[in-house]
Amino acid sequence: MRQLIRTVAAFGFLTATxxxxxxxxxxxxxSPGGIKAWLVSDSTVPLVAVDFAFAGAGSxxxxxxxxxRANLLSAMLDEGAADYDSxxxxxxxxxxxxxxxxDPSRDQFYGDMRVISANLERGFDxxxxxxxxxxxxxxxxxxxQASIIASLRREQTDPDSxxxxxxxxxxxxxxxYGRPANGTPESIAAMTREDLEAALTGFGxxxxxxxxxxDVDAETLGPLLDxxxxxxxxxxxLTPVPEVEAATDQTASEVIATPQTSIRFGGxxxxxxxxDFIPAYVMNHILGGGSFSSWLFxxxxxxxxxxxxxxxxxxxxxxxxxxxxxxxxxxxRAMEAVExxxxxxxxxxxxGPTEAELDDAKAYLTxxxxxxxxxxxxxxRQLLAIQLEELGKDYIDRRNSLIEAVTLADVRRAxxxxxxxxxxxxxxxxxxxx
Amino acid sequence: xxxxxxxxxxxxxxxxxxxxxxxxxxLGNVSIAPDTTTFTLDNGLEVVVIPDRRAPIVxxxxxxxxxxxxxxxxxxxxxxxxxxxxxxxxxAHPGNTFSTTVARxxxxxxxxxSNDYTAYFQQVAKEHLPDMMxxxxxxxxxxxxxxxxxxxxxxxxxxxxxxxxxxxxxAELGEAVDAALYINHPYGDPVIGWPDEVAALTHEDALSFYxxxxxxxxxxxxxxxxxxxxxxxxLAEKTYGQIxxxxxxxxxxxxxIQKLRAERTVExxxxxxxxxxxxxxxxVPSYTTAEPGEGEALDVLGEVLGGxxxxxxxxxxxxxxxxxxxxxxxxxxxxxxxTRFVFYATPADGAELPAIEARAREIIADVARDGxxxxxxxxxxxxxxxxxxxxxxxxxxxxxIFGAAIATGSTVDDIKAWPQRIASVTAEQVQAAAQTYxxxxxxVTGRLLTASAEDASQEAPDVDAPAPxxxx
Lengths: 434, 472
Known about the structure:
The structure holds two protein chains of two kinds. Chain A is globular and about 60 Å long. By secondary structure, chain A is an alpha+beta fold. In chain A, strand 5 (98-104) and strand 6 form a beta hairpin. Chain A is 41% helix and 18% strand. Chain A has a six-stranded mixed beta sheet, sandwiched between helices. In chain A, strands 8-12-9-11-10 form a five-stranded mixed beta sheet, sandwiched between helices. By secondary structure, chain B is α+β, with helices and mostly antiparallel strands. Chain B has two domains: 36-242, Cytochrome Bc1 Complex, Chain A, domain 1 (2-Layer Sandwich); 264-455, 2-Layer Sandwich (Cytochrome Bc1 Complex, Chain A, domain 1), CATH 3.30.830.10. In chain B, the strands form two sheets. A six-stranded mixed beta sheet of chain B has the order 1-2-6-3-5-4, with helices on both faces. Chain B has a five-stranded mixed beta sheet with strand order 7-11-8-10-9, with helices on both faces. In chain B, a hairpin with a 5-residue loop joins strand 1 (37-40) and strand 2. The chains are: A alpha+beta, B alpha+beta. At the A-B interface, helix 1, strand 1, helix 3, helix 5 and strand 8 of A face helix 1, helix 2, strand 4, strand 5 and helix 4 of B. Strand 1 of chain A pairs antiparallel with strand 4 (108-113) of chain B.
């Protein structure tokens, strides 16, 4: 039974997408000590999901010669704290049914805790220890370094991972966004306890964002927030990250002996706060974001059978914005796949979608928004993202009307801004034939 | 796949009592989706309803009790090819009408194929469920295929195979291990199929498989979300209930899995490999083929031996002896026929794989000889049970858990009773499972090894292809 889901989903057909919400009652909780959190209280299931982030403390804070520092830190925070060594801490988590994990992105350092509501206090206490008193012992450091190095070696030979890193390096040659976020075997091996302690200075009350969903009320939550987060410094110490724009018109390739070529493409996108972001998001859904219905899916997969997976995305970062995408196809048709993709990008930049395509996209994007709020976990993630992007508590109610308001002219303008100026930078990894 | 999420319990707040300190969960009182009900239509379709009223959302899944292990000889991959082709339209809903409708309604959809089952699902706002049921019922018998839509899809599947297997040495090793482990049984063939057999498949093959097997008596309807059994009874009668089926329950014709009589070692040496690894697989009974209590004991054994980073295997190989950078074990419990118990490890630099494998066998022999402690038993149960509790947060997970278990031979009551069955596992049963199935038993060892490019040049694709010219 335990392994049921392991065998489910052996070969999925499509990739699921996103989703619109209704009456979600968000409370803004402020603890006695001044820690703020968004809370959706729902006692239907006896669980609590706590999602938090230290804004700006992601892997872009890794020093140039210490790539992967945030990655190693995320592996070390639950490896022993205060009086608990690694085994004692891990055992306490499991015996109390507390799930704790940390995950840095380029910009943010994320953490999440899942706990049975009966064990809520114990969960927050363990979280407090992890954040405030991690031990970073030599034994655990060596173990986590070795484990990360092993996974980096696997990444280094995976065509799609290679293509992803190659694209980032080429698009952002002199910027933290261009470095390998997870590090390199060499950089991880050289990391010390002092490096991790330096990384911890990126955690402060002033860059902390929290969302809590589940079986807890505001009165109970307040003091628990202080227990977990009250010991943090008032101010995080962060290294400024320069604003940057993705390079265009570059081509990078790496020839490796493999039967399929991985392709990544991308260039500048539109910032989250720009009024064209929502139009760009709708445009991308039509082009390559909507799994079954997109132009790229139709032209690359349905008509030509060139690939199993083909997609595009718009991704706003704190210091740049990206439009990008990717696919993987047999070596002898790799260049054809690139041409087909580029032709669709061009078509979007010049012709744009039809009214009917726009209507369909809006129907999907508004109709599916509610699916993002189907579980405590997914609701907590949404609330955290809305806070990080500073969209406001009423965003869930406003969001669908923002999508509805997008016109064909808006989509064409956004498409022209993203796809009309400069060609995307392309990374090709494999053994493509001419 | 490597999902590790699991089973679920619904609305059991008052029933749980987890004390604040390291004490065991009250195992006797945890339940998996206790409000779940089941009934069978006259045409044989089994229906499972899992209420979850937190949001006005419904997950609709239809499961067919057949997968790649039910394919005709020489047609490996046909179950999966058919799964793809099921999105190509019917007489009533030609082309991609179904999918475009799901998208316009703001729904998600997907499908998947395994050894033992094939399933299709949509997640939609509650009011769209009747449409989904009507479309899916139509698709159970009404599929229409042409060469024009089927031929490119075969190329898509070959690309899927390249992406998942041919570009991944670890997946190629996995196929070789399966082929060595399952003697005289189709679990030895990959779900996606062998490349040359896949390339030769036709849509006529797919249609013939479809016509033979896709019918109410071979299917399970699972609906999780904001619904009641009464609503679903009515909707199911009006849709799936209209499909005639007098063939009776679905029966599989598979050969029995043969016992492994000799140790087998499979090695894949490849210049693409930079990180070695090893694994050992034993044939063990699944929940479906096991004697009562044996599957549960194997679950607990997997947890104690290698379910986490304080397990016996991780503690010895990684923490104390430095032989490996990661290591563990698991029991793959769900299968129609016998299944596997697996040890796996990533070696530390300089460590020899045979030494790691020998150490794992010693640890297993220790359990077979001396058993496990009361504390290990308690911790393993707590862990297994908390997986159940956490899974209740997601209706799709619940639908998958019930669907997969029923498709492989369990009943709704079996699933509901799982926490109690785990709770009643004894240390003696766990020891007996190690003795009976693992210690000293023949197994398949699979090693992923590094190689220089020269070693494997005959196997490698042509690398002299020119780098791409500027692409735009």
